[in-house]
């Protein structure tokens, strides 16, 4: 028996990176998957987003575990698209137990800057709310909602020398702070139904979002065209432990725990998987 055997998980941003890792990890532990991703670019974002073939590869990897998957393109900014895919998945699998609101974009160096701001807010905050709102009518006692925040939401980014200080980058921080507050309030209101909601805050994670030219430029603004080799030493500034980033699988382990019955009394938590990044910013407090 897997740790989420017989459960069904709805995963956004599932075509690659953390979302793919979460979908595959949950499938390895017995869950069937309803997976969505945008599968096209957003004009303001300076790196390529997922494609249909990426989502197809996630489906292949899930099926390789022996579990079932419904995988279709959907834009989290559009609640109707999410609802349509989710309802097709539930018709196939008969239930919904786990919601992983993972889809997100980084707007650093996005252009036009204020449209990049809006696209990041609409994806990273409104998209999380859309995901959870379309799923809530289908969740029952024992359900688990997990949203992906960011340790960036917990940092003081008012200093002008911080990576991602442009509007698209600051929108990322604002959105992740907003979703953290939203899930905190949500958790209180759904607790009487025995449904849980938590946020995981990763630090730098080794995904296409991090390994992108706009992110390299944010960490190395002194260079016109920094490479990964130029930027990677600067990634260490985010963590207290001696690592430039964590891997998607490190976050998936936390997702699996919060999705499983092992965490049945854990709700409203802001769980940091940050290699000590938070410790660099704040003294101890209760």
From TrEMBL:
InterPro entries in the cross-refs: NAD(P)-bd_dom_sf, Sc_DH/Rdtase_CS, SDR_fam, SDR_subfam_1
Keyword annotations of the record: NAD, Oxidoreductase
Origin superkingdom: Bacteria
UniProt GO molecular function: oxidoreductase activity
PROSITE patterns: ADH_SHORT
Alphabetized NCBIfam families for the sequence: PRK12826.1-3, SDR_subfam_1
Family classification: Belongs to the short-chain dehydrogenases/reductases (SDR) family.
Stated name of the protein: Mycofactocin-coupled SDR family oxidoreductase
Species name: Nocardia gamkensis
């Amino acid at each position: 028996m897997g740790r989420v055997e017989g459960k069904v998980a709805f995963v956004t941003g599932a075509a690659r990176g953390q979302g793919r890792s979460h979908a595959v990890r949950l499938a390895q532990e017995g869950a069937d998957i309803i997976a969505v991703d945008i599968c096209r670019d957003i004009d303001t974002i300076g790196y390529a987003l997922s494609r249909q073939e990426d989502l197809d590869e996630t489906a292949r990897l899930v099926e390789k575990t022996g579990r079932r998957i419904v995988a279709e393109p959907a834009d989290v900014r559009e609640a109707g698209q999410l609802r349509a895919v989710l309802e097709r998945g539930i018709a196939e699998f008969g239930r919904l137990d786990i919601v992983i609101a993972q889809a997100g974009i980084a707007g650093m160096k996005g252009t036009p800057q204020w449209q990049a701001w809006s696209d990041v807010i609409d994806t990273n905050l409104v998209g999380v709310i859309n995901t959870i709102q379309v799923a809530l009518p289908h969740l029952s006692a024992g359900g688990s909602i997990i949203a992906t925040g960011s340790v960036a939401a917990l940092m003081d980014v008012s200093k002008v020398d911080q990576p991602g200080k442009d509007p698209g980058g600051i929108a990322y921080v604002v959105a992740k702070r907003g979703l953290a507050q939203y899930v905190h309030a949500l958790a209180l209101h759904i607790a009487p139904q025995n449904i849980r909601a938590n946020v995981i805050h990763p630090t730098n994670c080794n995904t296409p979002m991090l390994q992108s030219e706009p992110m390299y430029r944010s960490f190395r603004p002194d260079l016109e065209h920094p490479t990964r080799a130029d930027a990677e030493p600067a990634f260490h500034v985010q963590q207290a432990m001696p690592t430039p980033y964590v891997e998607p699988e490190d976050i998936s382990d936390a997702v699996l725990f919060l999705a499983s019955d092992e965490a049945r009394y854990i709700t409203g938590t802001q769980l940091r998987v940050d290699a000590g990044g938070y410790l660099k910013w704040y003294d101890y407090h209760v």
